[in-house]
Design brief:
The chain is about 25% helix and about 20% strand. It is α+β, with helices and mostly antiparallel strands.
């Protein structure tokens, strides 16, 4: 699974790193970024939960 955050859509609510800190964090601009493009297999369920929790649907998982 690949994770990507659309920074122009992100509002910096912080939900994704609070749910899945192994994959997402907030950058110096206060917006979310994917720490690693390839989501570790043991983190896929949490990454999906983070994407579903995003209020602006800025997280893309493939």
């Amino acid at each position: 699974m690949i994770a990507h955050v659309e920074k122009d859509v992100c509002i910096g609510c912080g939900a994704c790193p609070s749910i899945c800190p192994e994959v997402f964090e907030m950058d110096e601009d206060g917006l979310a970024i994917a720490l690693r493009e390839q989501v570790p297999e043991d983190q896929e369920e949490l990454a999906e939960e983070a994407a579903e929790s995003c209020p602006t649907e800025a997280i893309i998982l493939n």
